[in-house]
Write a structure and sequence with these properties.
By secondary structure, this protein is an alpha/beta fold. It has a single domain, classed as Glycoside hydrolase/deacetylase (TIM Barrel). It contains nine helices and eight strands. Strands 1, 2, 3, 4, 5, 6, 7 and 8 form an eight-stranded parallel sheet that branches. Helix 1 packs parallel to helix 8 and helix 7 packs parallel to helix 9.
Length: about 290
Amino acid sequence: MKRLIINADDLGADQSRNAGIFEAIEAGSVTAASILANGPAFQDVIRRIDASACKHVSFGIHLNLTEGLPLTAGLGSITGADGCFLGKKEGHRFLMTEGDGVLERDIMVELSAQIKALRNAGIRINHLDGHQHVHIFPAVIQAAIRSALEFGIPWIRIPEEPIPAGIVEKTSHDLRDEAAMFIRLASAARLRIRKSTLITPDHFRGLYLKGRLSHEILEETLRALPPGLTELMVHPGRASASRGDGPFSSFSNSEREYELKTLMDEKIPAMLVRCNLTLTPFPEVLP
C-alpha cells in the first residue's frame, strides 16, 4: 500500500501564503500544514482554521529558531541585539553547536512557547517539524524530541531522502548542497528519534523540489515512491502584492504560486490513481 501526506510548510508567514495554502487544502490536494507560531500572520491562520472545514487536515508546529521575533524575551544565545533571531545562515551555524547548556536551555524555552501558542489557540498538534529543518540540528534535536513527548505530539519529520535520478541535475548547486546537509543531519537525528516513542513517516520527499514542483516533476516523484507512508513537503502560496522588508518578506513569491498551480491542477486525482497512491493526513495514533 502507498499512502501520501502532502504537507505545506510556513503557514503563518503572511496572509498571501496562508491564502494559497488554504486554497490547496480546500481543493483536497494538501492534507497537512505546519504552522509558524511566531509568523506575522499567525492570527490569520487561526481565523481561517475556525472559518473552514479542515477535518481532513493535520496541523503541526513548524518550529522556528532563525527568523523573526521569538515568542520569549531575553534569549540572548539565539537572538541579536534587536531581539530577533539571527537569520538562516547565522542560525544554522550556531545550531550546529552541541553541549552548550545556555543555548540548549534557551532553545527548549522557545520551543515550548511556540507549541503552547498553538495549543492555547485551540489547535490540535499532531506533527512536529522545523522551519529550515532546525529541529534536526545538533543543538536542537534533543529539545525537539523532549518537547514532542512532553506535549503529546506523536509524529516528527525526518527530512532524509534519496537523491532523485533525473531531477537533481536540474537543481542549483546551492539547493543540492543544502539538501545534502539536511540529509546528513536527518540521518544522525534518526538514531536519536528511534530511541524515543515518536513516530515518523516511512519516507520523505521534497528537499530537491523547492520552487520547481511542475506537474511532470510531481508525477515523476510520485511514480517512484516505494510502498508505505510518505510525507511530501511542499511550499504553495499566493504572491504578495506588497513586499515589505521583514524576515518573511520574500516568502510569498512567484515560486509559491508555481507550486500552488501544480497542486491545484484538476489532473491531480488521476495522477494519484496512476501512481497507486492514497492521500491522507498524518494518521491518528491509537493509545
